[in-house]
């Protein structure tokens, strides 16, 4: 080992040391997740970086739409663009397996120049929610499930998306739920995802073929919410890079193809008592606890008001179209009932949990997990009772979700109370303004449907 090598390299995880395999570390990527969950930051030579090193980014990274447009808001001196301080969280240090030379990526937390945490940063929003539970001696646990599509490279945005060609030489066109042959069809990509995950020290629980042609689901093991959100953040990048290695794209659009199912990020949630380690959703005799029911009640009451954090784009709501959709279009709940937005899977008392099936995989994982926990927390705090459990399919509109991003944003903006207090009023204002601008930008575009049906017919 070189004598000039920084000593902090000795403290990195074993997975990184195995990936490095004695080679010199070339570069460190100092990154944060923005409002969309995209990785932003700076790269620097490894010799320059240290765990105490501070770098800077302008606050305006949170004032941008998914298209990169700046959004004018009612913020004093908005475009003075003061710097935020990035401080590395070394527990998040991971390899960048697709880099040509050994490279490290580290998620950073954001602070003001006078040392205060930046509460509008998505990772901090989630931390603030988790801290609410910690104040009661509780620890929430979550387990996300990521659905995504492997697709033929789409080089022209005007062309529809197509499934990729697998090992048979034929393009996938039909539903093949849980088919092992379908998983094997894209085996080289899956193998590369596993290899990249191993190099990064990330664990995969299971991999399955989902309903759509080329649609895959990766399930992650349950754990701390911030840790799991970090994993989703890393996995999205890993999956994209693995697909590119095999001349495919990976997409996390909620509804990339009209006649194929949408992609979700189902989130399983439970809470344990820190002192006893027991699941507070169960009583001592194994029966359902009041806190479990109140958590459900909070979800039913508040989740409809926060849907833009779980379904953040115009495209997100195409996933909820009833015809041919497997996505729930309600916030009803039921035992082992996949027709409900809130499903209670079969489990023993210690594993009792609630699965939020409404979340789209196009979400920012920090925000979607934060809002799910926040709504349940409010339910427990206010002792809100849920409705009756649904048996079979719901046939009324009692728990219907908003059907457009405009409707969802209106509900989110009109709720100036408890949810905004927990998530942060400034964050909610900024998030809403950015989403409104994205919606306006979308509606300025002329779609292929309009050209096909209106150009010569009206």
Written description of the protein model:
A hairpin with a 7-residue loop joins strand 5 and strand 6 (103-111). Helix 4 (187-200) crosses helix 5 and helix 5 runs antiparallel to helix 7. With 458 residues, this protein is an alpha+beta fold. The radius of gyration is 22 Å and the shape is globular. The chain is built from 11 helices and 14 strands. Strands 7, 8, 9, 10, 11, 12, 13 and 14 form an 8-stranded mixed sheet that branches. Strands 1, 2, 3, 4, 5 and 6 form a 6-stranded mixed sheet that branches. The protein has 2 domains: 7-117, Glutamine synthetase, N-terminal domain (Ubiquitin-like (UB roll), Roll), CATH 3.10.20.70; 129-453, Creatine Kinase, Chain A, domain 2. Helix content is 29%, strand content 17%.
Write the layout of secondary structure elements.
Elements: H1 14-20, E1 27-33, E2 39-45, E3 55-58, E4 83-88, E5 94-95, E6 103-111, H2 122-134, E7 138-151, H3 180-185, H4 187-200, E8 206-209, E9 215-219, H5 225-244, E10 249-251, E11 265-273, H6 290-302, E12 333-335, E13 342-344, E14 354-356, H7 365-382, H8 405-414, H9 418-423, H10 425-443, H11 448-453
Parallel strand pairs: 1-6, 12-13
Antiparallel strand pairs: 1-2, 3-4, 4-6, 5-6, 7-9, 7-10, 7-11, 8-9, 11-14, 13-14
Short summary:
This protein is an alpha+beta fold. It has helices at 14-20, 122-134, 180-185, 187-200, 225-244, 290-302, 365-382, 405-414, 418-423, 425-443, 448-453; strands at 27-33, 39-45, 55-58, 83-88, 94-95, 103-111, 138-151, 206-209, 215-219, 249-251, 265-273, 333-335, 342-344, 354-356. The chain folds into 2 domains: 7-117, Glutamine synthetase, N-terminal domain (Ubiquitin-like (UB roll)), CATH 3.10.20.70; 129-453, Creatine Kinase, Chain A, domain 2 (2-Layer Sandwich).
